[in-house]
Amino acid sequence: MGECGRARSRPQQEGANPMITLLTDLWNFFDLRGFLLACIIFIPLERLLALHKEQHVFRKWWWNDLIYVFANRILISAGLGTLAVAVIALSGWLMPRQVQAAVAGQPYWLQVVEAVILADLGFYTAHRMFHSIPWLWKFHSVHHSIEELDWLAAARVHPIDQIVTKGMSILPLFALGFAAVPIGIFAAIYFWHSILVHANVRLNFGPLRWLIASPEFHHWHHANQREAYNTNYAGQLSILDKLFGTMYMPEGQVPEKYGVDDPVPNTYLLHLIYPFKRRRPAASAEAATTTQSMVDA
Ligand SMILES: [Zn+2]
Ligand SMILES: [Zn+2]
């Protein structure tokens, strides 16, 4: 996707910029180097600052999430790549050229700030949809099925969930004409931030926790506790949940359990087909009374 943005926005100056290549590579969770770097950073960090001290590095179903790291790459690249090409091809029709030129002409630091805000508004909307619409929840429940949350949990996302959520976050940036460097920087920030918020760490963000999503914030999103259902949708800016009335971060408390009550299977291939499987009516009705998606916070 970074390649496409680079080709369209500033072809001469940015076509061979190694920084963009580095940043977009680092963003890609499914790239081997990004994955190894994440191992080197987060495995020791989780030992040093463990939130749930009893949790092991090789926690339940860790090997399945490792499959996600590499197998999802192909499906997501194909899906998002196709969407990105379509948006770029239609961008002249979607957005006036003058607007795109004005956006691309801003300082890079300002474009990064704007990209984070706009992309997280898209993320918030998509994420809330995945929790509110029953058939979308079936896709998203795969991510919520993790019972021992750690940095690797960030990888367990159904490819259709990833494509729609990432698409709604990042494709508007292409349509608006953001330059490739700021998109690359945003993508790198997003990648590392999404791993951090899942990590099994006790990190105090201080007053910044009301502005920026922290592990504490996202762990509550994963809590399988009624009072925390359908809260903390933002990916990066927790202030969005404050603004939209969906924030839940009780002072001095830690989630007791994670996961869902839905009958989500445990392995990659079964996860892929799980949303498409019909459930018996009785089971569906029962699930509807217990699942996160059906209960208001
Ligand atoms: Zn969610
Ligand atoms: Zn999550």
Please provide a written account of the structure.
The chain is an all-alpha fold and 297 residues long. It has one domain. It is built from 14 helices and no strands. Helix 7 packs across helix 10 (180-198). It is globular, with a radius of gyration of 19 Å. The two termini are 36 Å apart. The protein binds zinc ion (2 copies). Residues 143, 198, 218, 222 line the site of one zinc ion.
Looking at this protein, list some descriptive labels.
single chain; 297 residues; mainly alpha; 14 helices; globular; binds zinc ion
Give a brief description.
This protein has 14 helices and no strands. By secondary structure, it is mainly α.
Record field, number of beta strands: 0
How many separate structural domains?
1
Q: What is the percent of helical residues?
A: 55-70%
Give the radius of gyration.
19 Å
Instruction: Give the biggest sheet.
Output: none
Count of alpha and pi helical runs:
14
SS class: mainly alpha
In round numbers, the mean pLDDT is 83
Shape label: globular
Low-confidence regions: 1-17, 282-291, 293-297
Ligands bound, unique: zinc ion
What series of H and E elements makes up the topology? HHHHHHHHHHHHHH
Q: Terminal Cα separation, in Å?
A: 36 Å
Beta-strand portion reads under 5%
Write the layout of secondary structure elements.
Blueprint: H1 2-9, H2 11-14, H3 18-27, H4 32-48, H5 62-94, H6 97-104, H7 108-132, H8 134-144, H9 159-176, H10 180-198, H11 215-222, H12 239-244, H13 268-273, H14 281-290
Helix pairs in contact: 1-10, 3-10, 5-9, 7-8, 7-9, 7-10
The chain binds zinc ion (2 copies).
